[in-house]
Every structure is written in C-alpha cells, then in structure tokens.
Design brief:
About 0% of the residues lie in helices and about 45% in strands. With about 70 residues, the protein is an all-beta fold. The protein has one domain: Beta Barrel (Elongation Factor Tu (Ef-tu), domain 3), CATH 2.40.30. It is globular.
C-alpha cells in the first residue's frame, strides 16, 4: 500500500533530504515496516515535496487515521 501525504506535515525536526528511507510505522497498536520516498514527482511535473510510504505486508485502508512514522 502506498500513501501520499499532501497536507502540511508538522515535523519535530527539519525535513530530511530527498531520497528513499527505511521506515518504522505505528498504526493503532501495530508496528509495521516499509520504505518511504521524500521528494517531488518530476515525471508528473511535481514541484512540491511529498512523503510517500509503502508498508510491507499491509493492505488496510488507513486514510483519516493517525499514524506515526520514523525514518
């Protein structure tokens, strides 16, 4: 599952560089792992930074749920 967050994200620290990162996520009480991409979508003329996360072995609809991510 991929999730793209296009809203302003309040970050506790500065935004990391563009790139691909390993992530650990907490969704409800479940710990999950995956990969994240931070950057724009130049193939589609993207200009703003996006966070896109793919969680391994996960197939639930989690839109509008609170999720915690750590890179």
């Amino acid at each position: 599952m991929s999730l793209v967050l296009e809203r302003q994200i309040a970050l506790k620290r500065h935004m990391p560089s563009n790139g691909v990162f390993a992530v650990k996520a907490t969704v409800g009480n479940e710990q999950l792992f995956g990969v994240a991409n931070i950057g724009n979508k130049p193939t589609f003329n993207g200009t703003r930074a996006l966070l896109e996360v793919h969680l391994f072995n996960f197939a639930q609809d989690i839109y509008d749920n609170l999720c915690m991510w750590s890179l």
